[in-house]
Each structure stands twice: as C-alpha cells, then as structure tokens.
Amino acid sequence: MVRWFWQRKPQRRPLALRSRGDLGDATRVDFAELAPELSRFLGQAAYLQLGYFETLSRGIRGTPELSTKESLARAAGTALDKHRGIVALITERGEDPTELMLPFRENLDAFRRKTIGARPEETLLAVYLTSGMLDDFYLALASSYGETGERVAEILRVDGARPEIVPIIQSAIESDPEWRSLLSMWGRRLVGDTLLVCRGALRPEHLADADTRIEPVYTELMGAHARRMDAMGLAS
Questions:
Q1: What are the pLDDT digits (tens) for 139-159?
Q2: CA distances from residue 24 to 5, 27, 209 in whole angstroms, order as listed
Q3: First-to-last C-alpha distance (Å) of the chain
Q4: Which residues pair with 27 in a beta bridge?
Q5: Which of 83, 201, 229, 234 could form a disulfide with 184 if both were Cys (CB 3.0 to 4.6 A apart)?
Q6: Which domains occur in the chain, in start order?
Q7: Residues 6+ positions from 58 with CB-CB distance below 8 Å
Q8: Neighbours of 197 (CB within 10 A)
Q9: Which residues 6+ apart lie within 8 Å of 216 measured at CB?
Q10: What is the pTM of this model?
Q11: Continuous segment of H or E residues that includes residue 17
Q12: Are 129 and 123 in contact (CB under 8 A)?
C-alpha cells in the first residue's frame, strides 16, 4: 500500500494537499466539515472489509490451485481482521455493529457486484485496486475522529492484499500477454465506481460542493491507483 503523508499518525488539523499541477502552495482540505458522523464512518468502514472478506472467500472456493487458495486465504484473513477490529471499536462505544452496517449493505453490495469480473483474475485485481483506494480514503477521513480515528488508521494500514494478490496477477500476465491489455482496461473501469463510494461516505448535506472541495484528494487517490497499476506493468 502506498504510504501517503496522511497515513502517519493523524493530527488534529486540516489535511494539506497539493492541488493538481501546483508544485508550490498547498490546498487545504478540512475533513472535519466533510467527514460523516463517527458512527456512520465506522459502519461503512466495517462493512467494506466484510465485503472484501466475502469476495476473497468465494475466490478460494473457485480456484483449484492450492498455492492460490493459501494466498487468498491470507488476504481474506486480513480483511476479516480489519472488519473485526472496527467492529470491536463500535462495540466499545456501546453501539450495535449490525445496525451501523445495515444502511450500507445495499449500496456496497451493488458496488461489489459491479467489481466482480468475468474471470477470477479480474475480480482479484478489483479487490486489490479498490481496497487500496478506499483504505487510503478512509485513512484520510480517520484524521477527523481523534483517538478513535487513530485506532481505525492503525487497522487500515495493514496491507494484506498486495503481497498475496499481486503475484497471482503478475503470474497471469506472464503466462499470456493478452492479460495485460485486458486487465489494464478493467483496472481503468474500476476508478469511477470507487470514487462514487468515496463520495457517498461524506456528509450528505455537503455533497453539493464536495467534489470541488476534495478534488485534491481524488487526484491523490487516482495517482496512487496509477502507481499500483504501473507496478504490475499495467497501463493506467
């Protein structure tokens, strides 16, 4: 996972991000105004990780290769650990994890269905790329929630997808050059739907002007996405 400046220990101040094409002054984005209430943040973050666990678990059942099963099991285990970690924080706050996650079930299940490819390799690429973008975005939001946000950030910083999934994708590319163009196109298609999930995580009353205000964050997310693609030899 790419380590951005906001992935260090969160501080109680607005994020400082460089605007597109600007190498000088920084554009400040105050997530305290855009971030949802803490319960909503935790509920959506928890359900996202549960969804990745489910997708990876299905991948385990669908592959005949034992080594691939082991890799996916480790990646799924990391997603489940993240889910459990966030659920534990919700429980500590005296809230019901199921109640907090339920409002996001329909939309996030629809998002997962859109990112399940026709082939297992496409689905694995989707898990790697979208979980990377969304973890990065939630790490940025976490800076708005004090000590609880710091604990969420520690949970999300664990990267279980890259070391397990990337070698599988690279092996597929090496076995048949046609995979490169197919997966490159698929990776580009994932960006729009993933950014919509990010947008939906913000306070509803601020959505009208949110896109303009957090454009620097979108730029950072897309830049990290491109670096993930490039590292696998895929065109972004």
A1: 989 988 999 999 999 999 998
A2: 17, 10, 24
A3: 17
A4: 17
A5: 234
A6: 31-231 (1.20.1260.10)
A7: none
A8: 19
A9: 17, 18, 19, 20, 27, 29
A10: 0.84
A11: strand 15-18
A12: no
